[in-house]
Write a structure and sequence with these properties.
Length: 143
């Protein structure tokens, strides 16, 4: 069951990612991306994975240290719960990035690869979008 839930966590998020990357101008895409409720199904998977390892999870968050966290992730449900949590937060970050790129008027050929990078390595994708946002927000230099 753990393997199924692990895989399900991404499958539940994938349609939103696909809409933002492949159908950025479809009217429903912005509406869907604007809703934080998109992560609820993934968070329900998280709860299903976290429940069996609640004592270990609580120990890891109550007094965080590397060894306790390592012990949690050594458990299949613990690693699965962490994965589902990452999937949910990455999706929220991706949705914000999509909406922010729309607000900034970024072309989908720039936004799409940034979102793909965010699916794969969210900190890198987010940092790149923040850099683009900073460049776009700077006043134009006049000669």
């Amino acid at each position: 069951m753990t393997v199924f839930l692990f895989e399900l966590s991404f499958l539940l998020a994938a349609p939103v990612w696909l809409l933002m990357i492949l159908a950025p101008h479809w009217s429903w895409t912005s509406r869907i991306a604007a809703s934080p409720l998109t992560v609820v199904p993934v968070l329900l998977v998280y709860l299903g994975l976290a429940a069996p390892v609640l004592p270990e999870l609580w120990a890891a968050v109550r007094a965080p240290d590397l060894d306790t966290f390592r012990e949690l992730t050594a458990l299949a449900d613990g690693a699965g719960a962490i994965w589902a949590q990452v999937i949910a937060w990455d999706l929220l970050i991706g949705q914000w990035m999509f909406l922010e790129s729309r607000r900034l008027g970024l072309h989908p050929l720039l936004t799409g690869p940034l979102l793909v990078l965010t699916v794969l390595l969210s900190p890198v994708g987010l940092l790149l979008l923040l850099a683009v946002r900073w460049v776009k927000s700077r006043p134009a230099v006049r000669a």
